[in-house]
Amino acid sequence: MTALGVSGQADPADKQAVIGRLDERTAHYGEMAHEIWSLAEVGYQEFKSTRLLQDELAAAGFSIEAGVAGMPTAFIASYGEGEPIIGMLGEYDALPGVLQTASPERELRTDGAIAGHACGHHLFGTGSAAAAVAVKEWMAANNVKGTLRYYGCPAEEGGSGKVYLVRAGKFDDASAVLHWHAGDRNGVGMGSSMANKSAKFRFHGVSSHAAGAPERGRSALDGVEALNFMANLMREHVPSDTRIHYVITKGGEAPNVVPDFAEVFYYVRNPDRRVIQDVWGRLEAAAQGAAAGTGTTVDWEIIHGNYELLPNEPLGRTMWENLELVGGVTYDDAEREFAERIGATLPGGRAAALEVAAQVQPFRPKSPPFPASTDVADISWTVPTIGLGTATWVPGTPGHSWQAVAAGGMSIGTKGMMVAAKTLALTAMDLFTDAEILAAASDDLEARRGADFHYEPLLGDRPPPLDYRK
């Protein structure tokens, strides 16, 4: 085999060999993903999941740097030396409260789990590891120069784990970064995303008997409700693509006790982080006003902050060509029956034909922003970055749903994961062997972010919130 093809990209025979090797390992990686699915550990608590991934990569010949950037469950696995330096991202945190078995009907897990992989991060972490091992073996067999890195990234769901890696300079020398995500169809993401910032607002009052001496109390819950009222009024006077979400995480212990402590957890999103900064300042002012008006005090803790995603067209075209080569997900009879039953449970019925899972979506250089947020975005402003989505869920399934947990826990999820693993591997091979792609990707990044760009994380200089899920 040769490392370079006629066009400068990886040899087609090498690519077919890597695809075949990953096919042979499908059962192994499916079992590994399912183990992480069963563990369902939340952000910054993924101790068993990160150990599984680290052990897999160490056994394959990667060196492991654990506990990076102040996060015990973060790690970097490296192979090779010199340039180019190609990174692959892996995630492995679950979402609290989304409990479900691998069943096409609503069926809660009863084994003590407190979370579920409703965003498919068990597949994300495992699939990227599968790709990294396959590329490492190809590099060793062909004496390919350069460095391959797997970044183990905790707490994507509201913890901004990758932002701390960026802030610590862990991507400063990377040539390109590849990632993927679970989804309901196969395509390369050329759209941006919503920037996002969050905080827990904590009100402090004075407790008292709610009936016998209410005049002596100052309700922290009143402070929370006053903030919520003002935030809901503010919705009319912010850009229409802004999103404001909140949950009351602490509201008191008993109705007959004036609460001396209450907490509300806020998210603010917009496709432009500059808009978020403006809206966020108004939210903080509303919190101060709520405290003044209720005779309480307030403080807040910034929990996370993510930029909007910056796509990269040269990397996107390269990844899409490889996804086209790999193809989509084909269901067997049992999987099709499972998918039909899942479709019947989706609100309003299934919104997409099952055949979508087997298709590769067209490449669209200009796509609307995706209405969600990701900490991959901060990486994308630092180094050329691109990702894809694959059909790990039944077409029409929304993320963060029990239906996503169910499909991700059975063979449909595994098949979509292996589409991603193959596409990541083939794309990395091209980047190691074609310097022109990397040069074009670097130029594209500079053009999109502007020459005067200076990175400042939205979450400031706070340390990782290791207890935000406790």
TrEMBL record:
UniProt keywords (A-Z) are: Hydrolase
Question: Where is each Peptidase M20 dimerisation domain found?
Answer: 197-289
* Keyword presence, Nucleus: no
| Pfam families per UniProt | M20_dimer, Peptidase_M20
Which InterPro entries does the entry mention? Amidohydrolase, Aminobenzoyl-glu_utiliz_pB, Bact_exopeptidase_dim_dom, Peptidase_M20, Peptidase_M20/M20A_hydrolases, Peptidase_M20_dimer
Which Gene3D superfamilies does the entry link to?
A: 3.30.70.360, Zn peptidases
Cited SUPFAM superfamilies: Bacterial exopeptidase dimerisation domain, Zn-dependent exopeptidases
Q: Which domain of life is it from?
A: Bacteria
Protein name per its UniProtKB record: Amidohydrolase
